[in-house]
Structure formats: structure tokens, C-alpha cells
Amino acid sequence: MLEGIVQLFEGVITLSSDGWNLFHIAWATLLGICVGMLPGLTATLGLTLMATLTFHMPAGQAILILIGMYVGAIFGGSRSAILLNIPGTPANAAVALDGFPLARAGNVGRAMGIATAGAVFGTLIGMLCLAFFAPVLADQALKFQSYEFFWLAVLGVVVSGRLTASEDPLKGWIAGFIGLLVAMVGQDVLQAYPRFAYGYGQMRGGFDLLPVLVGVFGFSELLTVMKTPVYPSAQTTKDRVIPKIREVLGYWKNIAGSGIIGTFMGIIPGVGEDMGAWVSYAYARAISKKRALFGKGSWEGLISSQTGCSAAVPGAVIPVLTLAIPGSAPAAVLLAALFVHGVRPGPLIMDTNPGFVYEVVAMVLLASLAILLFGLLLTKPLLKVLEVPRNRLMPIIFVLCVVGAYAVNSRVFDIWVMLGFGVLGYFMRELRFPMAPLILGVVLGPILDENLRRGLVLADGGIGPFLTRPICMALWIVIFVTFLLGTTWFPALLGRVRNAVLGPPRDDAPYSSE
Amino acid sequence: MTEEQQTGSVESVSGRTRPQMDLFVGLALLLLGVFVVHQAFQMPSVEHPRVRAVYEGPGFVPGLLGAAIAVFGLIVLVRSVCEGGLNLKGAGGQVMDVFRRPEPRRLTILLLLALGYAWGLIGRVSFPMATFPFVLAFILVYDWENTAERAQHENWLVALGKRLVGFQLRWSIFRERVLLVVTATVQAALTAWIVTYVFENIFLRRLP
Predict the structure, then answer these.
(1) A193 close to B (CB below 8 A)
(2) b/e for B101-135, b at 16 or more Cβ within 10 A?
(3) In the 8-state DSSP scheme, what is residue B58?
(4) Is residue A506 part of a domain?
């Protein structure tokens, strides 16, 4: 523990003592805020493009820039949520519920100030969890064998599919399984047989993750954005932006609870920031004495949802570093970037590269300080970002998508992959399939394939170890219950059993009182 | 989430897609799953000297995934039929309505521009020569219709012109369009030059 704290301080001092690092974190966070603010440009898109642009940089600098972009974009999305009622990134949808009514009631500056405080505290709580839990999780993960990694891959796809498509979980699972299938293209790890290549040389290596990501989160978003009408003009701020410390500390219960909830939601593979925000919002409503204000302009709702989604950022980095499994879609880009830069995340990271985890923690700390600074001091200049004409910005984004897809391997084939997955992603979005399980499936496909087959070889074809090892048992039970909860009949059955045992529920008791 | 909620082409009131649309989705998934299982069976298995058991074969996991996708497709299909998905009366009209709206037109134009750029120009001419016409065409196509609206906005120059010449609107539209062409040309040239310069000289990457 003490050694960890020393390494954390060392990481902070090393990073902050280099002026270039401070410069990189400043511009990357600011750019992230701008990307997050602009409806249609999400954190994943920003990270994907940035991952391809920072390809040539040393690993430390590139990861620093990506962390800055990630933290900045998730925070930046709250600005358009508050000002336009359009979440800049899907993660900020819960922020718009109370942020926009508060802004419309004349509290534009105060709402942005409170959201900034929530984002900073959320990131800091997530960062502390990252510092303390990442080494513990990595230590536990050393006990994992092929059997556990197989179930973890299944868990990621199933839980992500369930939570990102709450209206129709089946579509979330279908998206996840299509992602797993996409990952099957190319040579398999055991026999080096080129699957689904059909004699086409470029397909033998499979689809590279970054062009797929650029297609699904870049080109398909561009198609979606250019189809929809132009967003309305933003409100301006006349009131005070910097919140009073006493006012912020008054919400300590919301901040602490939402910070922990957000971090936990971030840790669950593929679930990510938006669920962090929604669950934190539900928590805030459950503990509030002013429930009637939720959705109409509740300060508790605003600070909780922003704290939750920002805490999920470091939370999503925890499984990236310790299990090489992404906690969210932007974290999948971060994972791909780590591999590109030769960093090997996974259970052995605390043995092979122990300082790196604390360096990442220090990067998150610097990024949270940057959003505090920019969020409170550059409020009015940042509003100008929302005035950038979409028709002028989008062609540049597409050019960067093309260059980004090409830059990774210098292959024109990757541009076609980007276009193909962009069109596929667009139609899947239109048909209400979530994108996060799809990408998680692409990332987890090789892990699932390799570990299922290796596990079966080790067990001589038996499935006993897959079902009876303690962690495996816990994992498959969670997967099974998640599947059951995604059906229509099981929750109904649970409701009937509960009514039979406890009697019928009272009429909307938790939500009716002020 | 935001953009998805704004679209409404294939959604029912409850937020789920229409049963008729699900019918086609389910059918497509079922066919995809069956195709993948068939392909998995074509891959080397126990008859291959290096494959000692079925689960060692390269087609084992794709086969399982294909089967799962086929089952999911079947569930979507059955659910759609139960919700009235086979009632295709008026479905043709709904499809035609989708194509009559402005969104598909904008989408088709963007797809054509993107494919023309990435497929037609990239790799055939130098990167800046490919990028310049793409950015210019993109801005002109999407911003042209906004010039008439922008021309309605009164400013001192327009007001003066109206007072002196008597007809304001046509002159303003012309002025807006000239302004659009000039600024779009400048932006296209700058984008092509800056991206090329940054990637080739700062990031030291080859461009297509």
C-alpha cells in the first residue's frame, strides 16, 4: 500500500515536472472538451482519431493525450446537455434531464459550475479507486486461467448488451455476438487457419480494431449527424459560474455515492459512462428529499449524474490495465492504443510494469485539474465551440477518418474497412442496435476464441472446470441471471412472486412526495 | 443515444423498431447465422492431421457464434410475427415515405461523396488533390440551401442595399452564394494543405 502511494507521488511529480507533459495534457483536455461539446462528436470518436494521430509519439505521451481527451470529452458533453438539451456524448444524457431545465430557469452559469464540480470530484473518486483497486484486481487476476477469461469475455458481451439496450436487450446481445463474429475473420490463434478470408490476402490478418472503430464511431456518426436537422443556438451565461465551496460540499452524499457507483459501472466490461450517469441519477433520486424536482431542475440530479459519468472514466480504465478488457467503448480505443504502443496490459502489469498503473493515475489527476481550470475559467470562450457550423466541420472529420484508418498500417484496405463498418454501424444504429457491445465483441472475440478452445484442450474436452471453479461459477451465474432478466417473462414472474409474498406495492410511494 | 432518439424512420411509438422491420432483421440474422454455421463446417476439423478434436478446429467458435446468431434471429422473427409483423399491408408505402423525406436524400449524397472520395480519388491522385474537391463539394452541397435563409437576415449592408436599390433578396442570395463559394474554396485548400503537411512533415506518416 505504502509503496503504491510512493509510486503514485513519483508518477505525479515526474509527469508534472516535464513542461511538455503539462502542455500535452492541457491541449488534449481542451480539445476533448470541444469534441465532447459538439453534438455528433463523441468521446469514442475523439479518442479514435487521436489514437491514430498520436501513433508516432512515445507511449507515455500518447497515453497522456488520450487520457486527457477521454476525461475532457466526457466532461465537455455536459455543456451541450445543459445549454442545448442535446447531450454532447451519450454519457451526458442524464445530465440534460436536470441541467437544461436549470439553465432555462436562468441558472446557466451555476449549472455549468456545479456540473464542473461534479466532473472533477467524480474523476478524482474514480482515480482513487483506480490507484487502490487496480493492483488488487491485477493480483486476483493472476489466479485466472483460460476458463475464467472465457467467462469474462462472455460476461462483457452479455452485460454490456443488457445494459446498453435496456428497451430491447436482445438487440444488445445480437450486436455483441456480431462483434464476436467480426473478430473471427482472419487467422485463428491455434491452427493459423484463415477464417472467412476467401483467398483475399488482406483478410487473412483480420480486421484491425482501429479502422473498425473509426468506421463505427466516426463515419457512422457522421452519417447520423448529417441526416438530422441543425441543432438550436445555445443560451448564454450571465450568472456566476464558479460555485461556492460550501454549496458543492452540501452535496457530499451525492458526490460520494455517485462517484463510487460511477466507478463500479465503469469497471463492468463494456457498460461505461452513460450507465454510470443513469444509475447515479437513480441513486440521487432515491436518497433525495426533493424527488419531485427530478427532471424539472434538481441540483442533486445534475451533480450526481455528472459525477457518475466522470467517475466511470477511471473506472473503465481499471479492467483495461488489469484484465486487458475495456470497461467502455472509449476504453476499448485506449486498450487498442496501449497495444499499438507496445504496452501489454493484463494481470501481469503489476509485475512487468508496476509504475505504469500509477503513471496513468497521475495522468487522470492532471486531466481532472485541467477540466477544473478550463471548466470554470473558459466558460464563455468555450460557448463559441457550439457555433462552429456543422457543414464546415464534418468534411474535415471525414478526411481525418480516412487518414486515421489508413495511418495505422498504411493500407488502403483499412479505408474500405472503415467505410464498410461505418455503413454497417449506421444501419445498426437506425435499427436500434447499440454500438458498445459490437465493439466490445470485436475486442473480446479473440480472448473468447482462444480461451474457450485452450480451456477445452486443458480439460481434455470436458466442461467441468468451466462450471465448477469458484470464480467461473460466480461469472456464469451472473451471465445466466442477466439473460433471465433480459427476458419479459422472468421479471414478470419475479414481480408475481414478490406480490404473493409481500403483498401488492403501494402506489408509486417512493416518487410521489416532495 | 441523442441522434438515435431523434430519428424515427423505423421506430414504433414505444421506442422499439416496427414488427415489420424486425421481420426482415430476424430473417437476415437467421440467414447470416445459418451461413456462418455452414462455413464453419467447411473449415478443417478432425479429419485434418493437426486437429485432434472438434474443439481444436478453427470452425468451432465461429460455428457456435453462428448458431447463437441464428437462434437470436429466430427469436426476433417469432417475436415479430407475434406482434403482427406479417401484416405487410401499407409497409411498402412506409418504405416509400422514408425515401421521400429529405433525410435519405442527404444521406445518399453523403454516401456518394464519401465513396467518391475514398474509393474514386484516394490512391488515384495525390492526397491534397483528392481532399480539395471532396471538402469543397461537401460544403457546397450541404450549405447551398442555407444561403437563402442566411440572406433573409438583416444587416446594415443588406439594409443599405435595400434602401438604395430597392430589391434586397436576390442580391443577398447572390452575395451569400459568392461568399459561400469563396470561403468553401479557402477551407478546402487549407484542409488539404494542413492535413498533408501535418501528417507528412510532423507525424512523418505516408499518406494514401
Answers:
(1) yes
(2) eebeebbeebbebbeebbeebbeeeebbebbbbbb
(3) T
(4) no
Contact A399, B146 (CB under 8 A): no
User: b/e map of B136-145 (b: 16 or more CB within 10 Å)?
Assistant: bbbbbbbbee
C-alpha to C-alpha distances, A117 to A266, A299, A363, A375, B39, nearest whole angstrom: 19, 12, 19, 9, 54
For A55, name the nearest residue in chain B, comparing CA atoms only: B203
Helix (H, G, I), strand (E, B) or coil at A194: strand
Q: Which of B100, B57, B130 is nearest to A195 (CA)?
A: B57
Contact residues, chain B, for A167 at CB < 8 Å? 14-16
Q: Do A431 and B10 touch (CB under 8 A)?
A: yes
Single-letter code of the amino acid located at A432: R
Q: What angle do CA A406, A412, A413 make, to 5 degrees?
A: 105
Q: What is the ipTM of this complex?
A: 0.82
Q: Is residue A202 part of a domain?
A: yes
Interface mutation target, options A184, A410, A463, chain B, most CBs of B under 10 Å: A184
Do B53 and A180 count as a contact with CB atoms less than 8 A apart? Answer: no
Size of interface A-B (CB pairs under 8 A): 179
Cβ pair A190:B56 closer than 8 A: yes
Residues of B in contact with A430 (CB under 8 A): 4, 7, 9-10
> Residue B125, SS3?
strand
Give residue A7's domain range: 2-233+242-501
A507 belongs to a structural domain: no
pLDDT of residue B9: 42
Q: Are residues A392 and B9, on separate chains, in Cβ contact within 8 Å?
A: no
Question: Nearest CA of chain B to the CA of A135: how many Å?
Answer: 32
As a whole number of angstroms, the distance between CA B122 and CA A419 comes to 13
Distance from C-alpha of A490 to C-alpha of A375, rounded to nearest angstrom = 45
Which of A195, A415, A430 faces B9 most closely, judged by CB atoms? Answer: A430
Task: Name the H helices within A288-433.
Answer: 299-323, 329-340, 349-352, 354-377, 379-383, 390-409, 412-430
Instruction: Report the domain count for chain A.
Output: 1
Residues in Cβ contact with A395 at an 8 Å cutoff, skipping those fewer than 6 apart: B134, B135, B138, B139, B188, B191
Question: Do residues A73 and A32 touch, judged by C-beta distance below 8 A?
Answer: yes
Contact A179, A440 (CB under 8 A): yes
Closest alpha carbon to A70 in A259, A312, A271, A323: A312
Residues of B in Cβ contact (< 8 Å) with A222: 110
**Average pLDDT, consecutive stretches of 10 residues, N- to C-terminus, chain A (514 residues):** 74 83 94 87 87 84 94 91 82 87 86 92 93 87 90 90 82 94 91 88 87 87 77 65 82 92 89 87 89 87 94 93 89 90 85 85 93 88 80 89 85 91 91 88 91 92 91 92 83 82 59 35
Provide the β-strand partners of residue A195.
A186
